[in-house]
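Q: A small favour: would you put together sequence and structure tokens for a protein?
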Amino acid sequence: MNRLQRPSRRDVLLGTLLLAVLALVAWINLPVVGRVFDRQADRVAALPAASPFRVGQRVLVLSPHPDDETLCCAGTIQQAQAAGAQVFIAWITAGDGFEFDAVLTQRVLDPSPQDMRSLGNLRVQEARRAVAVLGVSPGRTFMLGYPDGGLFRLFTTNYEEAYTAPHTGASAVYVQHALTPGAPYTGLALETDLRRVLDRVRPDVVLAPAPQDFHADHHTLSFIAMRLMSARQQEDRLRFWVVHGGLEWPVPKGLHPNLPLTLPPLAARLPWDRVDLTATQEQRKLEAVNTYQTQTRVLGRFMRAFVRQNELLSPGPLPEQGQAPGRGTTP
């Protein structure tokens, strides 16, 4: 009789890797596993509630791409308007740099620059529809239309010399409904447009991405917003949010409206405040997310994972020494 063969080292390694992959998939996708191993829900519940908005306040949301304003702040936007505040939204780019999006929407295997520009204009339309779901009129929105994926270049090497976006071939603003059609892709032009927006809105509160957000467009916009608001001596009006907060965050993926939005790992030590959402506000946020059909075809489980019991805002861009995460804010 042959003896049972002991598994080889290679078989053991492959089996261990397979188990690790299965565990990762479960952690990312199954809320039951998340409840067992992830105690961050208690940490979120202990955060202070954000102070409510007031009648007459003017709130400006700075969104790097169409959809960021909904993922981060759809519930906050609804609460601000319900309180009698006026909400304005400025999209910095048209989100025209995602080639796989163009493959699906334009039905081509190798998207041309014109295909990518068509995607940009399609995302502009989606953005206007999404914020209409949230009750924001077109007259309170601004599409700046600078290059998706190019904000860091504009902030650094292309502050005065026009940048040519590799996906669209554009070196100037081309999208429909742009604030300044034909503006060159330079950091100077971008900051000029942002100053125009700030002058028009005169915001009491500015919701901007945090510098810890992993996406380059997001943290670059954070730096620009802090510099412009500081020049006006109004940096205390900034409130910060995160969308790209770390590997696979938020987990579990997919729609889980009965779970809390936990702290983003890359920015867990910020002094977060909790914005609790009602079931009605969650449902409207989901409707706005679903408006972005170009994105949900590819990233639907990621995007719907932001439809949770709460949103998160931080009054500061950095952790405060000696202070536990979370504190009250006054919008």
Notes: The longest helix spans residues 9-29. The chain has one domain: 39-313. Residues 20-28 have pLDDT under 50 and may be disordered.
